[in-house]
Amino acid sequence: RLVLWSPLAGSGPDLCYPLLLNTSCRLSLQPRFTASLLYTLTFSLALLTVLLNLLLIVSIAHFRQLHTPTNQVLLSLAGSDLLIGLVVMPLEAQYYISSCWLLGPWLCYVYYTLSYVLTSASVASILLISLDRYLAVCQPLRYTSEVTMGRVQLAVGLCWSCAVVYNGSLVVVNVGREPRRRRSCRGECVVLVDGPTGWVELLVTFLAPISTVVALYLQVFGAALSQTRKMRSSRAAAAGGTTAARRSELKAALRLGVVVVVFLLCYFPSLGFMGQDASENFAAWSWGVWLLYLNSCLNPLLYALFYPWFRRTIRMIVNLQILKPNSSRASVLH
Asked: How many domains are contained in the chain?
C-alpha cells in the first residue's frame, strides 16, 4: 500500500500544532499563489468527478432501458469513483498541500480504510467488466443463459463485502504496529503495510486481478478479430440479424476495453511506490497517487465519448425531463 508523506517533528511557528513544540509535525509553507492554485485544481477535479459520476449513477438507476447486467457493474464502478471524488480527493488535497492531518488518528484510520476499500472495489469492478465482456464475446450462449441481473448484483455485492472485510482487517492489524515501527509526530496520517504483508497485499489487491483483466481482454480482442473476419466473409442473408447482434457485442467489448486500458495506465505508476515511504521521492509519488485518482474522473468522460445514450441522459437530467411522468420508460438507446 501507499504511505502518505510524514513530515518530521520540528519547532517554530510553522507547526501543525503550534502549542506542541516537541511533538507536532511541521506545516508545509507553500507560497500563497502555489497553494491557491493547488487547492483550486484538486478541488475542481474532485467536484467534476462527483458531478460526472452522479450523472452516470442517476442515468443507469432511472432509465429502465439501462437496467442491464453490464450496466450494473458500471454502476458499481461509478459508485466507488463518486466516493473517491467526494471524500478521498478533498482530504488528500488538504493533507498533501499543508502536510498536516488535523482530524485526529481515528479519522485517519477511517480515511485509510475507506480509500483502500474504494480502490479495491474499483479494481474488482474492472475485473467484473472484463469477465462480462469475455463471456459475451467468447461464450455468447453461456452469457445469455447464465449472466442475469440477480447474479451480477450478487457478484457486485460480494466484491464490495470482501473489500470492506479485507481492507478493514488490514488497517486494524497494522495500526497497532505503527508507533513501534517509525518515528511519529502529531499531524501525520500513516498506515504502513510493508514486508510480507505488503507483498501479499500487492498480489491480492492489484497484481492478481489486473493480470486476470489483461488475460481476459487479450482473449476478447483475439475473438473479436476472428469474428470480424468471419462476419466480413459471411454472405448468408439468414444470418443478418445474428451478425448485427454480434457486431454490437464486439463494439461494446472494444469500448469497455478502452476503459480498462485507461484504468491500467492510471494505476500502474502507483504500484512502484507501494510499501515505500513517500518522503523518499515525494514529488513522483504524489503524481502517481493523483494519476490514480484522475481515473475516477476519466471513466464517465469515456462513457460520454463512447456511449450516445449517456449523452442523451445527461441532456434529459440537466433539462429536468426525468421529473416528467413515465420518463423512466423513455427510449435512450436509439
From this structure: 1
